[in-house]
Amino acid sequence: MRRTAVVWVFIYQQKTYNINIKDEPDTVKTVCDISFRKDITMIGAIAGDIIGSVYEWNNIKTKEFELFSARCFFTDDTVLTVALAYSILTGTPYVDNLKKFYRFYPDSGYGGGFHRWAKSVNSKPYNSWGNGAAMRISPVGYAYDDLDTVLQKAAEFTEITHNHPEGIKGGQATAAAIFLARKGKSKDEIKDFIETEFQYDLSRHVDEIRPFYKFNESSQETVPQAIRAFIDSNGFEDAIRTAVSLGGDTDTLACITGGIAQAFYGGVPDPVANKVYEILDKRLGKITREFMKEFCEGI
Ligand SMILES: [Mg+2]
């Protein structure tokens, strides 16, 4: 894990966004064009969350399943990912937006620690090593243009709640994998970097992991498995199917895998992206589109 002090310059030009998140999701006007690019950001993570949502409590150890069923829904992974995208877009504090989005979507499957934190007045981090850090971090991998800044921002956004070393490590490793994939690094290069910098063991193929993998909400037992699911995939959809096939916390596994897979494979297939937007409400869809319009260029 790279935790050295980093001097960085925030060159992103702040803009004013027409995003009124107080609007009711069903009544707010859409301000962005609904035009899809193949290299859009963050949809991969959200797609993974939505596709994995129905298998968290009903694990299937196979890659053969209906990709989007009528029971699919977005969960806390999506809500907190979009809250982070909103913070980056607007320059408003993530601590405030985490609580704001929690109030918008109070029943999205948060862990007990996050529920308590979101309702707290003092907002002190609760030393979590949960996989919630990695599930929400994908916008960082897309928004910043050098590795040191990605690692620094990943740590900053994570330690608001998940200030345990394993929580920070999970957030940084996920953001770094997305960044490296986005920059055209090979799977071997990404694997080597993650193993060297974060000491995750990525040596086992998913076929070796799958038979023994069980539900585990820790960062250290979710992030390496999700990265390995990406390594063993042959395309975006296959990456999501591979993550879900491991079982366990499927929405979060597939969310982490999906963020990396999108960056590596150069996008999310249009049918998947279109379905994601059907399932997101207008508020989440609007912020997601604004984020991708800002950060998709040149990826
Ligand atoms: Mg979830």
Architecture blueprint of SSEs:
Layout: H1 43-52, H2 76-90, H3 94-104, H4 112-119, H5 132-135, H6 138-143, H7 147-158, H8 165-182, H9 187-198, H10 206-209, H11 223-231, H12 236-245, H13 250-265, H14 270-279, H15 282-295
This protein binds magnesium ion.
Radius of gyration: 17 Å
Number of discrete domains: 1
**What shape does the CA trace take?**
globular
Taking the alpha carbons of the first and last residues, their distance comes to 25 Å
Helix content: 40-55%
**What are the segments in which pLDDT stays under 50 over at least 5 consecutive residues?**
1-18, 22-40
Q: According to CATH, what is the topology? A: ADP-ribosylglycohydrolase fold
- Average pLDDT works out at 87
Structural class: mainly alpha
CATH architecture: Orthogonal Bundle
Task: Provide the β-strand percentage band.
Answer: under 5%
Counting H and I runs of at least 4 residues, what is the number of helices? 15
- Give the ligands present: magnesium ion
Biggest sheet, in brief?
Answer: none
- Please report the total strand number as a whole number: 0
- Helix and strand run: HHHHHHHHHHHHHHH
Q: So what's the CATH class?
A: Mainly Alpha
Question: At the fourth CATH level, what is the homologous superfamily?
Answer: ADP-ribosylation/Crystallin J1
